[in-house]
């Protein structure tokens, strides 16, 4: 993979989109809420909106139910400037995902409704017509690999991207409730990880890929064998990245968080738009860390994503822990 490719064209982001309902006012437990604040949600949708709010183009590749909730999701994607020409509306019993969430830093509850989720209905035909030749990169979120036909569609998209020399970026995005077993997740996500040019995950996700508690050794080995960039996120401890044989260790931007959700998606948006600006990987990683820090101080995920001015002001006024 040449990182110069990422500086051209628009990003394709494959994965789930849904409706988030946040207990209101912030700090309220779900069972005590007086109202709920609606927002666009779902890891892929959040990533796509993070990219567009930072001034770059992104198209979401997903399926949503052809009903009021699905239409809300499409309208919100358009509100954030995300291209929706590859968002398929489907009829039937599948339903767009719903998450009921709290804005609380500690003991934050999140209740997800993903039985017969619409985004798992994505098919190989849905990804056949994507413009891989002109795309900056294909970003795949690992949840899309959990169930067929979405699994087959994701691998088809990865294959077509590689044929077109389009960089493949995989966010492991491991959600235990989506998988029949941890072993299955390790096998399938591991197969996708070995085809990725850039691989991003947290310590739990790399432990799943490695089949053991400590995934750091696996991340380093995978970087040496397959991927040009592997980012191993360690929560409050920061991250370790393996980039073209170099090891980069980085802390976090310390902030007073309102809630823990949305940081990973914002990190991806900040990181890949840094690469798209032609920044060095270390500087791009710092952008990702800053985006993640900003999002956890605000309500929602997509609504909390910063624009470029927000991000630059934050990075000038805050210092990252080393």
Give me the secondary-structure topology.
Blueprint: E1 11-14, E2 18-24, E3 35-41, H1 43-53, E4 58-65, H2 68-79, E5 87-90, E6 97-101, E7 110-113, H3 124-128, E8 137-141, H4 150-163, E9 168-171, H5 182-193, E10 198-202, H6 203-210, H7 216-225, E11 229-233, E12 239-243, E13 246-250, H8 263-276, H9 281-295, H10 308-317
Description:
This protein is α/β, with parallel strands linked by helices. It has a single domain, classed as UDP-N-acetylmuramoyl-L-alanine:D-glutamate ligase, CATH 3.40.1190.20. The strands form two sheets. It has a nine-stranded mixed beta sheet, with helices on both faces. Strands 3-2-6-7 form a four-stranded mixed beta sheet. It is globular, with a radius of gyration of 18 Å.
Give the low-pLDDT segments: none
Count of distinct strands = 13
Assign the CATH topology: UDP-N-acetylmuramoyl-L-alanine:D-glutamate ligase
CATH top-level class: Alpha Beta
Mean pLDDT: 96
> What value does the Rg take, in angstroms?
18 Å
Shape: globular
What's the SSE pattern?
A: EEEHEHEEEHEHEHEHHEEEHHH
CATH architecture: 3-Layer(aba) Sandwich
First and last CA, distance: 29 Å
Number of helices: 10
Helix content: 25-40%
- Report the CATH superfamily: Ribokinase
Record the strand order, biggest sheet: 5-4-1-8-9-10-11-12-13
Which percent range describes the beta-strand content? 15-25%
């Amino acid at each position: 993979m040449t990182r110069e490719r990422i500086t051209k064209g628009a990003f394709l982001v494959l994965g789930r989109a849904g409706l988030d309902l946040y207990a209101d006012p912030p700090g309220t437990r779900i069972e005590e809420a007086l109202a709920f604040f609606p927002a666009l949600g779902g890891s892929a949708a959040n990533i796509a909106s993070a990219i567009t709010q930072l001034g770059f183009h992104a198209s979401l590749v997903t399926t949503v139910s052809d009903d009021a909730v699905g239409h809300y999701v499409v309208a919100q994607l358009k509100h954030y400037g995300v291209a929706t020409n590859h968002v398929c509306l489907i009829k039937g019993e599948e339903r767009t995902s719903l998450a009921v969430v709290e804005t609380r830093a500690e003991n934050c509850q999140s209740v997800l409704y993903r039985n017969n989720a619409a985004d798992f209905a994505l098919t190989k035909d849905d990804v056949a017509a994507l413009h891989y030749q002109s795309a900056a990169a294909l970003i795949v979120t690992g949840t899309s690999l959990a169930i067929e036909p979405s699994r087959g569609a994701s691998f088809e998209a990865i294959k077509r991207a590689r044929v077109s020399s389009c960089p493949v970026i995989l966010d492991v995005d491991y959600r235990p409730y989506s998988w029949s077993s941890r072993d299955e997740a390790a096998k399938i996500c591991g197969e996708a990880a070995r085809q990725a040019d850039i691989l991003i995950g947290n310590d739990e996700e790399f432990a799943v890929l490695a089949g053991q508690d400590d995934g750091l050794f696996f991340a380093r080995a995978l970087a040496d064998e397959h991927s040009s960039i592997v980012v191993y996120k360690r929560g409050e401890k920061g991250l370790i990245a393996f980039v073209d044989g170099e090891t980069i260790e980085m802390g976090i931007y310390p902030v007073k968080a309102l809630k823990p959700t949305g940081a990973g998606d914002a990190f991806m948006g900040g990181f890949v738009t840094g690469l798209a600006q032609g920044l060095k990987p270390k500087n791009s990683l710092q952008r990702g860390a800053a985006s993640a820090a900003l999002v956890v101080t605000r309500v929602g995920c997509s609504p909390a994503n910063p624009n470029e001015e927000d991000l630059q002001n934050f990075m000038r006024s805050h210092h990252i822990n080393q």
